[in-house]
Fold this sequence. Notes:
This protein is of the alpha+beta class and 379 residues long. It has helices at 14-22, 39-43, 65-72, 77-86, 106-115, 168-175, 232-240, 256-259, 274-283, 296-303, 362-377, and strands at residues 4-10, 28-31, 50-53, 61-62, 92-93, 98-100, 121-122, 127-133, 136-141, 144-153, 184-186, 190-191, 206-213, 216-225, 228-230, 246-249, 308-310, 314-315, 323-325, 346-348, 356-357. The two termini are 25 Å apart.
Amino acid sequence: MKNQVDILILGAGASGLMLGSLLKGKDFLIIDNNPKIGAKILISGGGRCNITNGNVKPNNFVGEQRFVRNVIKRFDQHALLAWLAERELEPIVRKDHQYFCKSSAKELVYVFQKEISSRNIQLNTNIENIKKMGNGFEVLTSKGKIKAKKVVVATGGLSFPKLGATSIGYDIAKSFGHEVTTLSAGLVGFTVQPEQFFFKSLSGVATEVKITVGEKEINGSLLFAHKGISGPAVLDASLYWQKGKIEIDFMPTLNVKALKSSKKNVSNVLGLATRVAKTFLEKLNITDKPCNKLSSDEWLKIESFKAYSFAPAGTFGYSKAEVTKGGVMLDDIDASSMMSSKVDGLYFLGEVLDVTGELGGYNFQWAFSSAYVCAKGLE
Ligand SMILES: Cc1cc2nc3c(=O)[nH]c(=O)nc-3n(C[C@H](O)[C@H](O)[C@H](O)COP(=O)(O)OP(=O)(O)OC[C@H]3O[C@@H](n4cnc5c(N)ncnc54)[C@H](O)[C@@H]3O)c2cc1C
């Protein structure tokens, strides 16, 4: 094991690997507790990795907007796609401008494997502690001590602990006097209260909804799950939810006025899968019958599913969450280099920072953009 290096990168995830790829000619080492690099990349996007999005704006992120804009603009989705194309990775666009690997997330990991010599990567090594030593640092790992002039914290968040996630990045930040905002599971499903336990009978069914969380409105698909609700719209909603009520419009296209004289059975016209419609009608104690036979009261009851308000019991937690909300406060990070303004030579990248992207490739874009800015800062 190398025990002295100029730049020590903690974490061989998306941001650490991009940084390593951009540090050509420099003396650096990446350490990670996993037996392979890019563990999260490999399982991301259903195994195909949603690398970025054709439409990246600061408001796709929860985090200080000016900081996000300043970082993203230096290496945006176009720059990323061009960089990947030079390395023969041409992602394909799927729905909602999302760029995915053609066949497997391995394509992206392979790019990093080609860019970074294996001599610069040390796996199966747990990072345990870090101390400032003169002008540099000493990092304690499960395999011994490593001295470094500069340390880059690219250790990600708390989600998916089975893939190596630990709190080390936040611990390091705090030990150097950085503030860490409240952390919680993000891009994750909601558990529900007993009144919503009837959702369980719809487990596996998806439906188009509009979810309102505070000021934020999210349109998309909701998936009924065994323990609550999930699916893209719910995952995005989790980014804006702390506690309290959310409102779901289960029938965003319903126009009651136009239906009142219809002779069709109500379960067929609500814009819901029949199974969902029938479950909702049963819940409301309404027999399925032609629309023109429904009373005004019954229509009112049906419309309650257009503004179905309830307080989620919680979330599915870090074991299922795609990201961690919150992180190292941006106030003490220099957006032009990603360096700490408290400790010279200490840098933070990617998810460990207090920036979280919506679903759609934004989190990898953030990891890659922040890595690029850091690489420039290290020049
Ligand atoms: C199931 C899933 C699917 C996802 N899909 C997408 C997607 O399609 N598109 C998208 O944009 N985002 C997606 N994300 C989010 C994305 O993976 C992360 O935001 C991104 O990987 C963050 O990059 P990072 O470099 O900051 O951290 P990570 O990629 O998490 O890398 C951090 C690395 O540090 C290592 N580490 C942590 N603690 C220690 C320690 N103590 N010692 C040694 N090593 C340590 C970890 O093992 C890890 O390898 C997904 C996440 C999950 C969980």
